[in-house]
Amino acid sequence: MVDNSNHSAEALREYSVEEAVPQAGRHYSFWDMVATWLGANANTSSWYTGGCVAAAGVLGGLGVILIANPIAYAVMALIGYMGYKVGTTTMGLTRASFGIRGSILPSVLNSIQFMGWCAINTFIAAISLSFLFNMAFGWPAYGEPGSWWVMVIGVVICSILQILMTVLGGSYSIKYAQRIAVILLFGLLIWETVVILKTYPLADIFNWAPAADSRIPFGSAMDMMVAFSFGWIPAIAEFTRYTKTKSASTIAPMIGANFALFWFAIIGMFGVVANAIANGVFDPNMSDPSSIVGSLGLGWVAFLILIFATTTTNCINIYAAGMSATNIFPKLSEKKALWGTSVLTLLFSLIPVAIGSFYGAFTYFLVYIGLIFAPLLAIMIIDFYVIKKRNYDWSQAAKVGGAFWYSHGINWIAIVSWCLGVAFYFVALNLSFIMNSMGAIYATVIVTSIVYLVANKLFNKKTYQSL
Questions:
Q1: SS3 244
Q2: Farthest-apart Cα atoms in the chain, separation
Q3: What does the pLDDT average to over 100-106?
Q4: Are 173 and 314 in contact (CB under 8 A)?
Q5: Cβ 327 vs Cβ 103: under 8 Å
Q6: Rounded to a whole number, what is the distance in angstroms from the first to the last CA of the chain?
């Protein structure tokens, strides 16, 4: 009889960033990854982002959705393969490009990003709860005077649910919860699609145009959508390190992410346009799925699905934030990291309540993602595929004086290139030819890639080590 106890133990482990996941510990199949990234993008934030890009007009919004996302998820596939090949997390990979100590800053900023996404999604789920509380108890729903305390209760309840789901089960609970969420959300989306198209003919939707004071340039809409998609990329290697095959780490996430986001963002945009046609006012603050579901009269079942689906999506956000924390504090256990980031996400989730404008908090958050991750991802890709020729020796992941030590643990070429990329992002925001076309994020990716590549050509290893 074959003893499978060691194999099972390996498969159930959560690995630290300093460990390369062995084949015995890889439990994500091709279709597991399709389902995971279907679930990640089949969510309320995809709906909301689609509603926001409606400000570029329906045709402009469709162009943004169909152009921006395939490119973004091709970038995700490149990072996904890195996780599969090396066997570590996304922020773990930054040890190779930024240095062992230099990777701490990206990890801190990445943890903030995922806690921010968790706050956005939790707030959206709390909106659904506010509508349920309104039906059951007559409490003020989101958007009504005095609803802030109801939103606080909703945030706390949703936070507790997603904390328990993530901390108790880890990557396994996320995998199975996402399967259920995908089925429920697609059922809801079909329902909403039928209701919208029965009530508002496509001709009316395509003939709608935002008022001049609400319209945004094509490039600004591109940045909104790209920032949303880029926000997922720092989580990809957390899961592809557990994949069994190369195609599961690259093709599978692209299939799941693109399919879900195309449909959800487009219906999100159509829903907000339908609401604008009905009310005569386009208000991005009311672009969230709960408000649209409420306006379409889909009922309490729809709100329950939104709550469950949002909490399962947030499991990925909490898990990715926790894994980033383990790169900052290598001695911190994975379970403790997940508990710590879970509690912090609850506090982050109260920020939109305090600000009073969900749309304002959301758009500023997307700017944060663009300026941080556009240059960061560019450097990671150029370092792995061009400079290091797809070869990271992960036995050096924590070795002082090793391949990833550079100068006192920091690759200053990467740090300076990153800072220059951030600076260029702000410049690009003020260049009309960029903001009317590709947007600042993709322009920053291109420029940072060139800067980092040229900088590495100019500084050989001997010269660099003398700095």
A1: coil
A2: 74
A3: 93
A4: no
A5: yes
A6: 59
What is the C-alpha separation between 68 and 1, in angstroms, rounded? 53
Measured between alpha carbons, how far is 325 from 224 in angstroms, rounded to an integer?
Answer: 27
Instruction: Give percent of the chain above pLDDT 70.
Output: 89
Contact 448, 454 (CB under 8 A): no
Which of 290, 299, 253, 298 is closest to 268 using CA atoms? 290
Calpha distance 141→292 (Å, rounded): 13
% residues pLDDT > 90 (the chain): 43
Residue 295 exposed, middle or buried by CB count within 10 Å (0-12, 13-18, 19+): middle
Any bridge partners for residue 243, and if so which?
28
Q: How far is CA 340 from CA 12, 252, 307, 323, 343, in A?
A: 21, 31, 23, 11, 5
> What gap in Å lies between CA 458 and CA 461, rounded to an integer?
10
Q: Taking residues 261-282, what's their average pLDDT?
A: 85
Residue 5 has pLDDT above 50, yes or no: no
Helix (H, G, I), strand (E, B) or coil at 293: helix
Query: Which one-letter amino acid corresponds to residue 96?
Result: A
- Judged by phi (left if over 0) then psi (alpha if -120 to 50, else beta), residue 336 lies in alpha
Could you tell me the pTM of the whole model?
Answer: 0.84
Nearest alpha-carbon partner for 320 in 370, 388, 373: 373
Q: Are 79 and 381 in contact (CB under 8 A)?
A: yes
The torsion angles phi and psi of 403, rounded to 5 degrees, stand at: -65, -30
Q: How confident is the model at residue 3 (pLDDT cuts 50, 70, 90)?
A: very low
Structure tokens at 178: 């996402």
Residue 230 CA to residue 441 CA, distance in Å, equals 9
How far apart (Å, rounded) are the C-alpha atoms in residues 155 and 299?
Answer: 21
Rg (CA), the chain: 22
Residues 6+ apart with CB under 8 A from 68: 222, 225, 226, 229, 439
CA-nearest of 303, 239, 324 to 32 is 239
pLDDT digits (tens, 9 = 90+) for 157-182: 888 887 777 766 555 666 666 667 77
**What pLDDT band is residue 4 in, cutting at 50, 70 and 90?**
very low
Instruction: Tally Cβ neighbours within 10 Å of residue 79.
Output: 24
Q: Is the pLDDT of residue 192 over 50?
A: yes
What is the secondary structure of 93-140 as a DSSP string? Answer: HHHHHH-TTTTHHHHHHHHHHHHHHHHHHHHHHHHHHHHHHHHHH-PP
Crossing angle (nearest 10°) for helices 148-199 and 30-41: 100
What's domain 25-369's architecture? Orthogonal Bundle (1.10)
Cα(404)–Cα(412) distance, integer angstroms:
12
Residue-level pLDDT at 60: 95
For residues 413 and 217, give the distance between their C-alpha atoms in angstroms, rounded to a whole number: 34
